[in-house]
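Course assignment 3, question 2. Fill in each field.
Student: A.L.
Task: Predict the tertiary structure for the chain below.
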Amino acid sequence: MIYSPSAESDLFWGTYLDYTVGAEYQRSVYGEDFVDWLSGQLYLWAGVSHRGLIEEIELTPWEYADDGSVVREGEYGPGPYTPTITVGIGIGVEVILFRYFSFPMEVGYAATYTLTSGTIIDGLSISLIPQGGARYRY
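Answer field:
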């Protein structure tokens, strides 16, 4: 989660608020212990997430003189709150080292809907997404 209330701080490159909350279900299809220190599994996954975003926008444009010099700098501020919902499904491969260190790699399709869009067609996007990670299993 990123929250930056100050418009003067460009620490987060023009983002005032950016958060994501999600959950994923994994169902093992096949698993194997190859040797004592190496295991793996093939699995299907399904997930859902919610994202909220407020980005910086230009409130007033920059003004330039005929010679190209700046007459007045533009003003920036927070834009509208943009909530999205994403639902996805796909397949994954998990490599497990020494029974505790897990490296999942996933690919699937995700449908994202922007809740503040005017119509379903304008707010819906479907894309192929890769995901990966590193985790400690206990």
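Instructor remarks: The longest helix spans residues 120-123. The first strand starts at residue 2 and ends at 3.
Grade: pending
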